[in-house]
Amino acid sequence: MRPPPRAPDEIVRRLGVLLLLAAAALALYVASFSEDEYRRVEIKVVDHTKDFLEEGITAYEGAKTCYKCHEQATLDFFHSYHYQMVARQYDVVNAPWVPYGGKVAMNDFCGAIFYNGKPINFIGFAKLTNPPPGYEHLRGKPVAFGCAACHGIGLGEVPQTRLTDAQLKNMDCLACHVRPEVYVGGVIGFKKGVREIYKDENGNWRYKVNLDVMTIAKNIINKPTRANCLACHAYSGGGPGFKRPNITPDLYNPSKYFDYHMGEGMHCVDCHTGKYHLFPDRAADGWAREPGEVKTCVDCHGPRPHEDEYGDDLNKHSEFLACQTCHIPYIAHGQYPTELSRDWGGSRFSPELGYYEPLARYGKYVRPTYMWYNGTRSIYVYPSKVEGEVVVTVKPLGGRGNGKIYPFKLHTSRVPLSEEGIPIPIKVGLFMATGDSNKAILAGAAAAGLTWNGKWVTYVRYMQVDHGVLPDDRALGCKECHSPNTFFPWKELGYDRIILLDGR
Ligand code: HEC
Ligand code: HEC
Ligand code: HEC
Ligand code: HEC
Ligand code: HEC
Ligand code: HEC
Ligand code: HEC
Ligand code: HEC
Fold first, then answer.
1. pLDDT tens per residue, range 177-206
2. Termini Cα distance of the chain
3. Are 216 and 63 in contact (CB under 8 A)?
4. Cα(269)–Cα(267) distance, rounded to whole angstroms?
5. Ligand 6 in contact with 71 (CB < 6 A)?
6. Quick one: which ligand is closest to 68's CA?
7. Residue 316 alpha carbon to ligand 6 centre in Å
8. 176: Cβ below 6 Å to ligand 3?
9. CA dihedral 5, 8, 11, 14 (to 10 degrees)
10. Residues of the chain under the 50 pLDDT cut
11. Of all atoms in ligand 1, which is nearest to the CA of residue 223?
């Protein structure tokens, strides 16, 4: 059902009748949302014991085990962004369509997984080699399993576009389809001991699932819970909440003052339905430009959700403010600080994580950075030559009358730049294990065929914030923006003055 066409405000004001009609239509529209769209997904166990016994399945061999009975689902997942790690971006203004994603990019957090198709950090195993004084007992502790721990949702083969037996065996359906109490993917799977790294008969690193096949069968779930997704998403960037400020371990058991929706029991798949195994995203710094559905605020609440005395004023703001701007007033407002900048030029040992991290600045209860975004952006395409000392990796575009104001986390990163003018993919496992920045940069440069003479460049990225909606009484009120001492950056957003409200 589509929203009723909206009459221009002047006409509405003059014709009270029209207003009434529109209100009635709107009430119907809103009612239809609450009936259909608010029905939460049901996550349940689908016991496969009988199916596995009948089929004589005695070992889990990745998707090969599931393929016989779930051919279409396997093919859908195989072609998805999650598995292939790359999608075509058509909304970039400074280039014709470009492929982007973990398969081809270098980001401002962990760097690059591949360099021109060659694995740099994809899979590997690093143990802590030189702990600082006081932490000697941690020597030998496993610190890194490769980026493939999360990327590609597989068991260590590099994803390819042609489906082969090896590719079938590689896809790890269990990361999303086994109760998280029993198995999860990501880095947490290793921590819990349900995943292990080993060398196969050809000497290649691979992961294996450390679970008895009948335990798997008994615990298959129809759709993933929050905890399945969080095993990867809450730790991206190298630690809890480092990257996405409002996707953190807080969400395992969230308070509604951290995230109203998930605090009320919603799961990621209530919004990211995952139909046909697609998880599309059109955020300024998201890359999963694949078809499929993600429910946004308006899909569930309608375009005019406010009704009380300020309702009309608030609704009118939707012409130039994204819902997130008022409803997500802070980032990192939970237990975990988020990273605001990092510097690969130095290291610090983290006793909590048990490995070396780059130098970084973190923040909690940070006001977002506000920017206009009209659905197009400019990006830096890796590995092209860098001009100047700052590279804006992702910048949302737009301005007054062209797009809406959205909240972002501004993140910067100091990364090594090669003589050829290309940012160097650092060997991250080596860095985590030794804390030796120079060594890790030189090893990465050598692997990529680049030379490093000590140059640096700063990466800048605007990260869209879409999670962490607070209860409505904590949304930004009129005075928080329309007052002389507001934090709201009117000037930076293109206004010549702060708009003040008289009498309110
Ligand atoms: C021998 C056949 C067989 C194998 C092998 C098998 N399944 Fe199933 N699966 C089924 C059947 C039959 C159902 C439907 C059960 C029902 O609806 O009660 C099902 C249902 C499911 C569902 C729920 C589908 C829905 O529509 O809600 C998921 C998810 C699933 N299986 C995942 C897996 C995964 C992951 C594997 C591999 C580890 C796997 N299955 C292996 C037969 C199989
Ligand atoms: C704990 C899980 C996890 C690990 C380990 C991980 N990543 Fe990621 N990475 C993610 C997630 C989740 C995303 C996409 C979602 C997002 O940006 O919030 C992502 C996205 C990326 C992207 C795409 C651009 C971007 O930032 O969105 C690159 C490049 C990347 N990671 C590099 C790496 C490198 C290099 C490593 C290993 C040194 C690594 N990642 C390890 C979870 C992980
Ligand atoms: C990133 C998480 C994720 C991974 C990995 C994943 N699935 Fe799913 N799967 C989902 C979600 C979410 C749904 C629910 C989609 C819906 O409601 O339509 C789903 C639905 C299904 C269904 C029922 C609906 C359908 O499309 O047939 C089957 C069967 C299934 N998955 C099997 C698999 C198999 C087999 C694999 C491995 C090749 C796999 N899944 C990997 C998230 C995942
Ligand atoms: C109430 C709905 C809702 C829930 C619940 C939800 N998301 Fe989102 N998510 C969104 C919206 C809306 C976007 C932006 C989509 C767009 O602009 O296309 C988004 C975007 C994302 C992105 C891209 C980066 C960003 O922040 O914009 C990732 C990654 C993501 N979600 C992961 C998750 C995970 C993991 C969970 C569960 C822990 C989750 N989401 C739960 C609504 C939701
Ligand atoms: C095994 C780890 C893992 C699991 C489990 C997982 N993801 Fe992801 N997800 C990733 C990684 C890694 C990426 C980035 C892929 C790339 O570019 O290489 C990603 C990308 C995404 C994106 C797109 C982000 C962008 O940049 O546009 C969304 C949205 C998303 N995941 C949502 C989910 C949801 C919802 C779930 C649970 C149903 C889930 N994921 C489960 C690892 C995982
Ligand atoms: C200018 C700031 C602002 C914008 C923009 C905004 N809201 Fe609100 N919203 C509020 C405030 C303040 C409240 C508190 C209740 C009230 O005064 O109506 C609220 C209340 C709500 C409620 C609770 C309604 C109720 O009846 O209790 C929902 C749902 C909601 N907003 C959704 C949205 C959606 C969806 C959008 C985008 C289409 C949006 N809001 C845009 C400020 C805003
Ligand atoms: C999949 C549907 C869905 C999506 C998408 C969604 N919401 Fe909601 N939202 C709900 C439901 C359902 C509730 C009521 C939860 C409850 O009270 O059980 C709710 C409640 C709210 C409230 C009211 C909180 C209160 O104090 O009563 C606000 C504000 C809100 N949402 C804003 C947003 C914003 C902003 C977005 C986009 C970032 C969004 N919602 C996306 C379904 C959704
Ligand atoms: C997140 C910040 C924010 C909040 C909260 C907010 N506004 Fe605004 N408001 C704006 C911006 C930005 C504009 C300018 C829009 C434009 O480009 O014309 C604006 C414009 C207005 C205007 C039009 C003024 C003019 O001269 O054109 C009125 C009236 C107004 N707001 C009233 C309110 C009221 C009443 C509330 C509370 C119910 C409110 N605003 C809450 C940001 C905000």
1. 999 999 999 999 999 999 999 999 999 999
2. 37
3. no
4. 5
5. no
6. 1
7. 11
8. yes
9. 100
10. 1-22, 24-36, 504
11. 29
